[in-house]
Automatic annotation (TrEMBL):
One Pfam family in the UniProt entry: Glyco_hydro_15
Span of domain GH15-like: 350-499
Annotated signal sequence range: none
Name this polypeptide is given: GH15-like domain-containing protein
One of the protein's GO biological processes: carbohydrate metabolic process
Species per Swiss-Prot/TrEMBL record: Anaerobacillus alkalidiazotrophicus
Length: 626
């Protein structure tokens, strides 16, 4: 499980600086171990902005003394030693928890270390490649950086240029400079030039042949740099490439320093033990990486949802950034997210949009958007303490509160919908229900809207909002709570893990409901085989099973903290940490076959690290986390 990234080929470790985004993959089709840049995105983090051909970019190396090919795909057929041995992944990490991703792998005695980063404020990506021996003996090696391009429209010396669209250009080369060959990779690395027609619109592999590198005793060879630079024009891409090359030797250090400077803004929660310290730093880093240049936080890690802006996810990330002390980023994310809003015919807002077209892109019907908007605006404002935020966003606040107050039926609850889960409703053969989540987040949103209304002198509105919030909470108590257990909806006594948030993140429910609900969730939503908490009873994923999700497991642990059950809470937090990848990324959920899906949800997964540690610190004022 430690290397879940890539066992489902849509899972990736992200590297981003806001301008560009790269996906790093550790397993390819058939669970083949491979260290590769799976994809590179510019200018939007959307699948339509993908700049590589499907095989991506990877490294081959020929160790001359060992007579071995470091060849993840087994393409080279030369009769050298250990041809059949697969590559072993030694370690993956974000260096110091920041924005430089390192992979160490080996085949036989040949060790390859790559580091990948996106330099601050540039439209470029750099990968450094170093080779050593496992037994620390001296040797020589030839390194072959490979990239599969969608096309090559021009070459200028050893710079190759690819055009994806009218405003998408990619320039790539290596440093120290080396000859590039287009054509079949196995032939290019063994017999030399096999150039095919480069001025074409067909995908083409490009191989750079780096002169023999000396592998010193006990140390790595000097780094070889592979550079990718993007631009809206050919000249812009070439200029960006040359700018990146000028500072290539200092770039890794400068990138780490930029991340360190950003991290110093993070709230101080005291000294953490090494594992938690790493998870804390990495989770803050990934939250920042999910933000595009315009501030929009989006899904960043796996293919089905790439380029989608979910209002819920984006607001969760924006509020997490605010809670962790990054106020400027939080404001940027809040305004960017709300700029996507388009009203539905009934006056609510669509909850999902494509980042390029900015058009609605949802596949379910959820009425929680207005409550979440009110919470998100309040959370950022309450920490930043700037009334301009309320004044700027008052039309959205007014529209959201008005929708909640006028869209309740005779039960007193918000009209039926899918709740917090898109995998629920008529499209899966289920009727919508009066979901507890929807009415509860609407109630909490109204309470926070009342605070904001008072801050700008709208006292009558504040009274109206609080009355509406009280009525919704009463309706939940009448219809959706049985023997103190908060159920999924008015229509059923089945459970939904999202209700646990209203004992912690959104402290709305009376404490009398807490213990009975927690006991029921633990009994009925905890996975009996691998631990963790399911989203809700009767949920079926696209894989056809019921498996625990990282987000709901964090939420349940936080509710246990609020109930003073500290040890039990940490057992659930530990479940999540134990199912992380070596690099510290957490999956969105676990499937029954032991596979994990996605780190594309920093709102639910990595933000869970940040929010649970903050809650623990706030409730117990201790720094002795262990």
């Amino acid at each position: 499980m430690k290397y879940f990234i890539g066992k489902n080929q849509d899972n990736h470790a992200p590297i981003s600086n806001g301008n560009v985004l790269a996906w790093i993959q550790q397993y390819d089709i058939g669970c083949l171990p491979v260290d590769k840049i799976s994809q590179f995105f510019f200018p939007n983090f959307d699948l339509s902005s993908a700049m590589f051909d499907t095989p991506g970019s990877y490294v081959l190396a020929k160790d001359h003394n060992e007579k071995i090919w470091y060849d993840p795909y087994g393409m080279v057929k030369e009769k050298l030693g250990q041809i059949g041995e697969i590559i072993s992944l030694n370690n993956t990490q974000y260096i110091n928890g920041y924005g430089v991703y390192e992979v160490v792998s080996h085949k036989g005695n040949t060790v390859v270390r790559t580091k990948t980063w996106a330099p601050p404020s540039q439209n470029s990506l750099i990968r450094s490649i170093e080779v050593k021996t496992l037994r620390n003996n001296a040797s020589k090696a030839t390194i072959f950086p490979v990239v599969h391009l969608k096309n090559v429209v021009q070459r200028i010396g050893n710079i190759f240029i690819s055009r994806i669209s009218e405003n998408q250009w990619l320039a790539t080369t290596v440093s120290p400079t080396a000859a590039g060959i287009t054509g079949e990779v196995p032939i290019a690395v063994t017999t030399g030039p096999v150039t095919i027609f480069e001025h074409s619109l067909i995908p083409v592999p490009l191989v750079f042949t780096i002169p023999d590198q000396t592998i010193p005793h006990q140390n790595y060879s000097q780094p070889v740099y592979q550079i990718f630079a993007a631009g809206t024009t050919k000249d812009a891409a070439i200029q960006q490439l040359n700018e990146t090359l000028r500072t290539i030797r200092q770039s890794e250090r400068q990138t780490l320093q930029a991340w360190e400077a950003w991290y110093r803004e993070t709230i101080d929660i005291g000294e953490l033990p090494p594992p938690l310290d790493y998870y804390w730093k990495l989770s803050n880093t990934v939250a920042k990486m999910s933000m595009q240049k315009d501030g929009t936080p989006i899904i960043i890690g796996f293919r089905p949802y790439q380029g989608n802006v979910w209002i819920r996810d984006s607001l969760w990330i924006a509020s997490t950034l605010a809670l962790s002390g990054h106020y400027e980023d939080a404001i940027h994310a809040l305004y960017a997210t709300l700029s996507y809003l388009i009203e539905r015919p009934d006056g609510n807002y669509y909850f999902a949009y494509n980042v390029v077209t900015r058009l609605p892109n949802e596949h379910a019907f959820e009425n929680d958007t207005t409550g979440l908007i009110l919470y998100g605006i309040w959370q950022v404002w309450s920490l930043v303490k700037d009334r301009t935020i309320i004044q700027d966003l008052w039309p959205i606040i007014h529209q959201s509160t008005n929708w909640i107050l006028t869209n309740r039926d005779a039960s007193g609850l918000i009209f039926p919908d899918a709740g917090i889960w898109e995998t629920f409703g008529p499209h899966l053969g289920e009727d919508f229900e009066h979901m507890t989540w929807t009415s509860a987040i609407s109630s909490y949103g109204l309470l926070k809207a009342a605070e904001m209304a008072e801050a700008i002198g709208e006292n009558e509105k504040a009274i109206q909002f609080r009355q509406g919030a009280f009525e919704l909470l009463q309706a939940i108590g009448r219809n959706n709570v049985h023997n103190g257990i908060v159920c999924r909806s008015k229509e059923t006594k089945l459970l939904d893990a999202s209700v646990s948030l209203f004992f912690s993140e959104f402290p709305l429910f009376p404490k009398e409901w807490r213990a009975p609900t927690l006991r029921a969730i633990e009994e009925r939503l905890q996975d009996p085989f691998i631990g963790g908490i399911w989203r809700h009873e009767s949920l079926t994923t696209e894989e056809g099973d019921l498996k625990p999700w990282t987000g709901p497991t964090f939420w349940f642990g936080e509710a246990l903290l609020a109930n003073q059950e500290v040890d039990k809470a940490w057992s659930y937090f530990g479940h999540n940490y134990n199912n992380s990848a070596f690099c510290g990324l957490l999956p969105e959920l676990l499937y029954s076959k032991g596979r994990a899906r996605g780190i594309g949800m920093p709102s639910y997964s990595q933000s869970g690290v940040i929010r649970s540690l903050l809650l623990y610190n706030n409730l117990f004022h201790r720094s002795d986390l262990s």
